[in-house]
Amino acid sequence: MPPALKLITDHTSEAAPVAEFAEAMSALASGVVLVTCWLDGRPWGLTVTAFASVSADPPTVLVSLGSETPSVRAITASGRFGVSILAAEQLPVARFASVPGVAKFLESFTDSGRSTSPAVAGALAHLDCELSEAIRVPDHTVLFGHVRAVQASVAGAPLVYYRRAYRTVDAGPTERNARCLSS
User: Is the residue at 13 inside a domain?
Assistant: First the structure.
């Protein structure tokens, strides 16, 4: 039987220097998404690279957001959020929704289609999520969401973030394997 997982709350042990950690993490290329929600009845979104698929059955994802953001407050209050996976040509919306300290209302970027959460028009995919758990870690909140609906495109290249810059994918796939690497 594997040992039980526990939450470590003792932050007094020595940690890696923040600058060195940030530099190391910049070596990981990440897809760029907008985490969306409704704020005062208007579509709101925040650019995020800390996003991952957790489980395919049931479909579950996670995002990590700054704990003091309007997004976290709105999502935890409503219990719903969306994730729009951005295409390479959506750099303007990624930049708009990543500026710290400014309003991120998305009326000019969203599609009023079939989604219950604000969906970015032209995104490669959009996931409607129901909040299942929120875990606060030092200055961020990790939100887990059960995916309730999906809209996906079969065409288009992703927008990625690597070495502190937005980039596009130029090369084709080296191999296609639908098997989950963590199973």
Answer: no
